[in-house]
Structures are given as structure tokens and as C-alpha cells.
Amino acid sequence: MSTHRLESSDRAPYLLIGPGVEIPDGVYLGAHVVLHEGTRLGRDCHIEHGAVIGRASKVNAGSSSPPAKVALTIIGPGTIIGCYSVVCAGAVTGENAFIGDHSLVRERARIGAGASLGHAGTVGRDAVIGNATRLQGYCALATGIVIEENCLIGPHVVVLAGTLMRPNDDRSPGPAIIRRGSRIGSAAQIMSGVEIGAGAIVGAAAVVTRDVPAGSLVRGSPARVVGPNPRTS
Fold this sequence. Notes:
Number of strands: 30
Strand content: 25-35%
CATH superfamily of the largest domain: Hexapeptide repeat proteins
CATH architecture of the largest domain: 3 Solenoid
Number of domains: 2
CATH class of the largest domain: Mainly Beta
CATH topology of the largest domain: UDP N-Acetylglucosamine Acyltransferase, domain 1
Number of helices: 0
Largest sheet: 11 strands, mixed
């Protein structure tokens, strides 16, 4: 199967679609949208101008990332995808998800029902965002990280998967995990291998280098526990 087989469609201005694309009634499509092979849109989706869905990304010759392949890309019912966003092959969104303008969702990422990704956010390959979790603008989530349901992530937060330049090196810690109901302040950095416990709060601009106990409040660089989550204490 070729990822370059795109044809014009009169369904929307300058729309290009690949083989097997599914567009049910009630879907809104802006101008200059590209729907690659294997894309399936749910009912009542809203796809803004210039969005690209189902693209199999090319990798740099020196990259250790596996080559991307054509795969089903499933956009759940009622999902909104903003202007000039890119959702890569194999990604899946739940019902009523939101992907802000100029965002990038990489291969096989999962974005849960009612979850939102703010303007210019990046979600790495195989990353998981739980139901009803909200990420504000400019967040960067690395390959394979997990953010569970009902979390709130402030703007410019970085969540890492490895500290070495060679991500397949056995010495690299695994991806970070943020457990359900956590709150992460703006510009915080969550280092690879770290687990943020359920219901924890991470202060703005904190650098989290070790696990955070459930229900605690951490601040600083490196982040340290300064007390319990005031919402639950």
C-alpha cells in the first residue's frame, strides 16, 4: 500500500483523500485537509483547515525510530482537530477529544474520550493520554509516556522518556507516568522513569527527578515534597 495515493474530493475545498478513507455524514471538513489511507472519522467530527490525518511519517537516516507504516487512524465521534494539526498513522482519539491548532500527534498515540491537547502540543509515539485529561498549550510529551485520566497539565510542561541521545540504550530509564487526578504546574519538567502518584500536585517550573508520592505537593528544582495536596488534606 502506498501512502502517496491521494485524490481530490468535492466533499470540501481542496480536500485530498487516500484509499479507504471513511467520512460519515455530519463531519465538518475545512479547506486544504489531507486524509491519508486508513483514516476513519467518527460522526460529527470537526476537522479544521489544513489538518493532516493518517500520515506515515518519514524518519531521518540517522534516527533509531522504526519506519512508520500505513495503519488505521481512528478519530472518535465529536472530536475536534484544529488548524494545521498533524495526526500520524495509527493514532486513535476517543469520543469528543480536542486537538488544538498546530499540534502533532505521533504514530499509535492514544488520546482518551473528552481529553484535550492545547495549541502546538506534541504527543510522542505510543503515548497515552487518559479520559478527560486536559493539557494546555505547548506541552511536549515523549514517546511512550502515560498520563492517566482526569489530570490537568499546565502550559509548556515537558514529560520525558529518556535522558540519553540513544533512546534504545538499556541504561535509559523508561517513560514517565503521571497517575490519575494529578496537577502539573506550568513549565514543569518530568524526567524519564519518574512516576507522579495519583492526586499529586507539581509546582510551576519544578524539575521532577524522582517519584512523587500520591496526594503530595512538590516544588523546586530538584522537586521536593513540601506537604500534602491542599485539596485533599
